[in-house]
Amino acid sequence: MTSPSATTAPYTTVIGLEVHVQLQTRTKLFCGCSTSFGAPPNTQVCPTCLGLPGSLPVMNRRAFDLALRSALALNCKIAPFTKWDRKNYFYPDLPKGYQISQYDLPFSSDGSLEVVDPKGEFSRQVGIVRVHLEEDAGKSMHDEAAGVADSRIDLNRTGTPLCEIVSEPDLRSPQEARAWLGELKLLLVYLGVSDCNMQEGSLRVDANVNLHIPRDDGSLAKTPIVEIKNMNSFRSVERALAYEAARQYEEWQATGAELGSAPKQTRGWDDAAGVTRGQRHKEESSDYRYFPEPDLVPVTVSEEQVAAVRAEMGEPPAVLRGQLQETWKISAYDADVLVNQGRDLVSWYEQLARLTGDGKVASNWMQQDVLRTLNERASTIAEFPLEPAAVADIIGRIAKGDFDTSRGREIFAAVVETGKSVAEVVAEMGIAAVDDSDLEALCRELIAANPKIVADVQGGKEQAAGGLIGQAKRKNPNVNPGKVRAMCLELIKRGEA
Amino acid sequence: MSLSRQDVAKVGMLARLALTEADLDRMTGELSKIVEFVSQLSTLDTADVEPLAHPLDTRNVFRDDEPGTSLSTEQALASAPRHDGSCFLVPAVLGESGSA
């Protein structure tokens, strides 16, 4: 296993990630308030999520099932017995004064998720320490421009179900971290666990990073671990980690400070400035005084339940990549491109591959024509106006020799544009298969008009025949270049020119 | 087992209680007595006792993922010391959230 930075930097970057994903439920974890994004402030709140006296939480079954599905997809062991705990701290966006989370008996632990770079630059098996189910806090907003005024608190998000996923410190470069997050997101979206929309806060990442620096005597210096927060995109995660690694190396060279010499530092990423900055450190901040949540009873999970969730889970992306390569004989790179577009696009591709019987050609059409069209229209495969059968029809006609691939592309574009059938477009564009006698007449005409090319071909330079194809297309745009070439060569060789 | 004055000061700080020196003196004594009383439990042999996660025997209480009734914004804000009609207002929060 290699990573780009490991080969150039005089140290190893050691990275662990903590990811929070919002589960796709209709309602909150402990009450029936809606979880939909973007509602006016404090319109999705009730006595339970406001923490009003006398209210009691009741666990959302769907949230627990989705959490279970996430943990299984991450190859975690599922605990037969799990409970929830109160994590106590004071903050205005936490009305109860505690977050209901899981402490010593999370519902799952000891998993893994592998990331494989499709270009083969790295691959990394990353351990998962635990996945647990907890509630989100609310949102506090502060208008800096307005000076030191009040902060405004919106509690719509309070109580939204979150899965917290904690990785082992197994990642070894910022690039790996970014790629691994991409794989995690893809997996969770595939399984319908979360939409993982970072803009809406459905996926949040904190990173722990330090350096292992080999000393001359062969021993290893380890820099103090820094937790980075406030990264709003996977690209920021990569940039923040790269910045932080370089900063730690510089600091170590200047001070020699090592792990254990100071408590863990938290630094915030400033995306505009491209730097991490130290955040105010509160000595007591790690003392959450967890204790068992008395308002929720424990949950037991049977092996049958685990088997049932597993059965309805669907293939994770990594399995699907392997299946596509195996079934349709496409490259790892092609399978990666298709699978990364989501399950719907893969299903569309599989239909096209079945209809054409040629996975490679179907993959080329998906990547070049279908995906390009989707990108241009900023739309998804679900909104795509063509059925796989229409594209299969075009591919079939190309294979039969009705027209060549570039003509096929024009037809594809016209079908997308007009919404007409392939047959209609073919008829309207006046594309009829040029019949063999017409083709032969055209080739004879060209050969007679181009003695130099004929001489070159006869002299052994077959590629000279290319000059005839361009002329043929100008005379009749419907001719098949392959056929023109073959017929011209045959006529020249037979000496019938 | 007894509590030190420092322990009590820390617990007070975590609970955001402004304890005076006199409070600390009194609380250190009172809290120590409570802790000593409860610590009698540690004299019991619990080798054969299963850890208790919850006093009730009930397990697996769930509700369906069905929307219930939320409060109106007006109702939600009704008991707040200060609000602006849509949000709760609190003294400026500039630091990081304590949430992990």
List keywords for this structure.
heterodimer, A: 497 residues, alpha+beta, Arc Repressor Mutant, subunit A, 3 domains, ten-stranded mixed beta sheet, three-stranded antiparallel beta sheet, elongated, disordered N terminus, B: 100 residues, mainly alpha, 2 strands, flat, disordered C terminus
Describe the structure.
The complex is a heterodimer of chains A (497) and B (100). Chain A is elongated and about 95 Å long. Chain A has 3 domains: 4-305, no CATH class; 315-428, no CATH class; 436-493, Orthogonal Bundle (Arc Repressor Mutant, subunit A), CATH 1.10.10. Chain A is built from 17 helices and 18 strands. In chain A, strands 1, 3, 7, 8, 11, 12, 13, 14, 15 and 16 form a 10-stranded mixed β-sheet that branches. In chain A, strands 6-5-17 form a 3-stranded antiparallel β-sheet, with no helix packed on it. The longest helix of chain A has 22 residues, at 234-255. In chain A, strand 12 (203-214) and strand 13 form a beta hairpin. By secondary structure, chain A is an alpha+beta fold. Chain B is mostly helical and 100 residues long. Chain B has a domain at 5-43. Chain B has 3 helices and 2 strands. Chain B has helices spanning 5-14, 21-38, 73-77, and strands at residues 62-63, 88-90. The longest helix of chain B is centred in the N-terminal third of the chain and has 18 residues, at 21-38. Chains A and B meet through strand 2, helix 3, strand 10 and strand 18 of A and helix 1, strand 1, helix 3 and strand 2 of B.
What is the 3D form of chain A?
elongated
Radius of gyration of chain A: 30 Å
Kindly report the average pLDDT value of chain A.
Answer: 91
Strand content of chain A: 15-25%
Count every helix of chain B, treating DSSP H or I runs of 4 or more residues as helices.
3
Q: What does the largest sheet of chain B look like? A: none
* Continuous helix count of chain A: 17
Unreliably modeled segments of chain A: 1-6
Low-confidence runs of chain B = 96-100
Q: Please identify the structural class of chain B as seen in this structure.
A: mainly alpha
Task: Considering residues with a beta carbon less than 8 A from a beta carbon on another chain, report the largest interface and each chain's count.
Answer: A-B, 65 and 44 residues
Whole-number mean pLDDT of chain B: 90
